[in-house]
Amino acid sequence: VGFLVDNLFLGIIVGDLNISAANDSGVDARVFGIETSLTDSLDLDEDSAKLDMDIHTTTLGLTATYQLMRQKNIPVLFRWNGFSATSGLIYNSFEASATADMSPVFGLPDTDSNGNPINNKELVVAEVELSNHSITIPLEVSTAVRLLSVVNLSLGAGLDISFGQTTVKSSLRTAADDTFTGKVVKKIIDKTLEESDSGLSFPYDETYNPVPLNPRVMLGMGIGLGPLTVLDLTAAYFFDVTRQGMSGLTIGANIVLRI
Fold this sequence. Notes:
Helix content: under 10%
Shape: elongated
Order of helices and strands: EEEEEEHEEHEEEE
Distance between the termini: 15 Å
Strand content: over 45%
Oligomer: single chain
């Protein structure tokens, strides 16, 4: 809407990604319905869990950027983009599920107390589900410079106002729980988890709300071709305002078409 309101520009964010992985079929990725195979197999050893995983993420958003200070430039050599303020509304959905046959990991016995062979196939199956749905209102101020019409360097600070919910579920089931074999399996699992000191427990079912206010600083570098920016590398550091160990660094790469 730059032609309607001076120095005001709108942006649309659309993202769709699905990744599936399994020991035998490898890793496949699908972006906006276009599927590609990343690898034919996971190439795990025999003692590893047999994994079947699926991840799906969707992002939809609308942003508005207002130019607070106009750009200044030396043609070809240097351009300072001035200061700009950005806000908007971004929806993100993340769904992940994984099923793993853990029998090889727990080293289950080959025979029972009577010496009869035990079929360990899918004797211990772990299931994990992670679901996150959030709405974010970003508030940020940023500046950038462009060197030789090729390299963009950006710096900014902002605050994310977040709403939503995250659900984590996990379960561990064993075949024939009430049989002698099932009881042996359960003892092996309990002992292994206890000795690992990992804090894992089964079953697990918890719901979390996001930290409502997330201040951050951002640093970015883009590679351009003439007036276009075709690749963005970004890093953002989030501060732990709630003192709950929620600070952290995120790094991302985007293929974009920006004039």
